[in-house]
Design brief:
By secondary structure, the chain is an alpha/beta fold. It has an 8-stranded mixed sheet with strand order 4-13-12-11-10-5-9-7, sandwiched between helices. Helix 9 (about 260-265) links the parallel strand 11 (about 245-250) and strand 12 (about 270-275). It is built from 14 helices and 17 strands.
Length: about 450
C-alpha cells in the first residue's frame, strides 16, 4: 500500500476529523492553532478531539485512544478529573474573570513559594512564553546587563529573542530561526550546546561581564528528552554565581517531577524559575518567580513593567489549586514515579526485541522513545530521514491500535495519575505489535 493510499485509508476511518480539518484549513493557518498538531511530522490528518476522560481521549468520530500527550503536560491528574472539574465549576459560577486580585491567586502563590527552592515571590501570567519573557526582563533589569545565554535544543516559548538556532561553533550569536524576527532582536542572545562545560567556560571567559542570565530547561524535553548530568547543571550554577542569574525553565518539569520540580530533584537552586502547565490544571497559566530582591524590580514596586489582562484568572487559579491539592493528598508524585518505573520495566523487553534501535528515556512521569541509532543523546541531535520515517510509521501503527503518541519524533510523552497498570500493559502490548508491523 502506498503512503498516499494509506493516508486515504486513515482519513476514511476518521471522516469527521478529516472534514473538520478541511474546514479549519480555510480559516486557520495550517488548520491548527499550534504547528505540531498538524501532523506534518508524521503525515496524515490530525485528530480532532471531542472529549477526554481519565487516561483516554475520544475523537470527533467517536474512537477512543489511550492518551500519552496529556495536552502536552498540564493534565497530570488525567482528563476531566472530578475534583478539578467540581472546583472549576464552582469558580465559574462566581464569574470567569475579574481583572482584579482574588483569593485563589494568593493561595496558589503561597503554594508555589512554599514548594519551590529559592522562590520567595511569584507572579502569574497566562502562558509559558509570557513567563520566560518576563523572567528574562526582570533578570536584565536586576543585573543591569543585556546578554542572555540559552542552549540548543531547549525551547522557551516563541518570544522573538529566544527563537534562535545554534551554529557549528562552541558558542554562536543568535540567528533567528523564524521569519519575522529581525536579527537585531536576537543579537543579545548566545547559544551553547548542552552537556558541554568547556563551551560554557569559554563564553563566560569572553563575555561574562555582559551576561544577564543563563536560561535552561533543567530537564530538556522539547528536542527529545535530554536528561542533563548534574555536574553540568552544577557548573552553570557556579558560573552564574559570578556572572548573571540562572533561570530554570520548569514550564514542563515544574510540579511534575516533584513538589519542588527539577530543582528539588537535582538539588540545584536557580535564581529565577518559570512555570506553567501543571499549575494551571489544564487552564492557560504561566508563572515566574525568584528571590524577593529580584522580584522587587517589578512594577508597581519597581521600574520593570509587566502586566496581563487575564493574569491570575480566578478559574485558572482554582484549577491549579485543585490539582496541587490532589497531588499532595494522594502522594501523587510518588505514585507517578512508580508508574514511570513500571512502564520502564514493561517496555524493556519490547524495545530489546525491536527490529531497529529504539531507546526509552525516562525522568519520572516524562518519557521519550528515541529512534537515534547511536543511542539516546544528551544534546540536541537530528534524526536521519530513515529514523524519522520509522517514527512516523510507528505513530500511525500505534494510532491504529488506540494509542495516541505525540505526533513528532522529538516530543516527550506524559503519564498521569489516570494511567494505571491496565493502561501501561495496553501500551506495552500495542508497542510490541506496532514494532513488528513496521519491521
Amino acid at each position: 500500500m502506498t503512503n498516499e493510499s494509506s493516508a486515504h485509508g486513515r482519513e476514511s476511518r476518521r471522516p469527521r476529523s478529516a472534514g473538520l480539518y478541511e474546514r479549519a484549513c480555510r480559516v486557520i493557518p495550517g488548520g491548527v492553532s499550534s504547528p505540531v498538531r498538524a501532523f506534518r511530522a508524521v503525515g496524515g490528518t490530525p485528530l480532532f478531539i471531542a472529549r477526554g476522560a481519565g487516561a483516554q481521549v475520544f475523537d470527533a468520530d467517536g474512537r477512543a485512544y489511550l492518551d500519552l500527550v496529556g495536552s502536552w503536560g498540564p493534565l497530570i491528574a488525567g482528563h476531566a478529573h472530578p475534583e478539578v472539574i467540581a472546583a472549576v465549576s464552582e469558580a465559574l459560577a462566581r464569574g470567569m474573570t475579574y481583572g482584579a486580585p482574588c483569593a485563589a491567586e494568593v493561595e496558589l502563590a503561597e503554594r508555589v513559594v512554599a514548594a519551590y527552592p529559592a522562590v520567595e515571590q511569584v507572579r502569574f501570567v497566562s502562558s509559558g512564553t509570557e513567563a520566560v519573557m518576563s523572567a528574562i526582563r526582570v533578570a536584565r533589569a536586576f543585573s543591569g546587563r543585556e546578554l542572555i545565554v540559552k542552549f540548543a535544543g531547549c525551547y522557551h516559548g516563541h518570544a522573538d529573542h529566544l527563537l534562535v538556532a545554534a551554529g557549528s561553533g562552541l558558542a554562536t550569536f543568535g540567528r533567528p530561526s523564524s521569519a519575522g524576527v529581525p536579527e537585531a532582536f536576537t543579537a543579545c542572545t548566545r547559544v551553547l550546546p548542552l552537556d558541554d562545560e568547556a563551551a560554557v567556560a569559554e563564553l563566560f571567559a569572553r563575555e561574562g561581564a555582559r551576561i544577564a542570565a543563563v536560561i535552561i530547561e533543567p530537564v530538556p524535553a522539547n528536542h527529545g528528552l535530554l536528561p542533563q548530568r548534574r555536574a553540568f547543571l552544577a557548573a552553570l550554577r557556579q558560573v552564574t554565581q559570578q556572572h548573571g542569574a540562572l533561570i530554570f525553565d520548569e514550564v514542563i518539569s515544574g510540579f511534575r517531577l516533584g513538589r519542588g520540580g527539577a530543582a528539588e530533584r537535582l538539588g540545584i537552586t536557580p535564581d529565577l524559575a518559570t512555570f506553567g502547565k501543571v499549575i494551571g490544571g489544564g487552564m492557560p497559566v504561566g508563572a515566574f518567580g525568584g528571590a524577593r530582591a529580584i522580584m522587587a524590580r517589578l512594577a508597581p514596586d519597581g521600574d520593570t513593567y509587566q502586566a496581563g489582562t487575564l493574569s491570575g484568572n480566578p478559574v485558572a487559579m482554582t484549577a491549579g489549586l485543585a490539582t496541587l491539592d490532589l497531588l499532595a493528598r494522594e502522594s501523587g508524585w510518588e505514585r507517578l514515579e512508580n508508574r514511570g518505573a513500571e512502564l520502564e520495566r514493561l517496555l524493556a523487553p519490547v524495545l530489546a526485541a525491536a527490529p531497529f534501535p529504539v531507546h526509552l528515556v525516562r525522568v519520572g512521569s516524562l518519557f521519550w522513545l528515541s529512534f537515534h541509532a547511536a543511542g539516546a543523546p544528551r544534546a540536541a541531535a537530528p534524526l536521519t530521514a530513515d529514523e524519522t520515517a520509522r517514527f512516523a510509521a510507528l505513530f500511525h501503527a500505534m494510532l491504529d491500535r488506540g494509542i495516541y503518541l505525540p505526533p513528532s519524533a522529538y516530543e516527550a510523552c506524559f503519564l498521569s495519575l489516570a494511567h494505571g497498570n491496565a493502561e501501561l500493559t495496553q501500551l506495552a502490548h500495542a508497542l510490541r505489535e506496532a514494532l513488528a508491523t513496521i519491521a
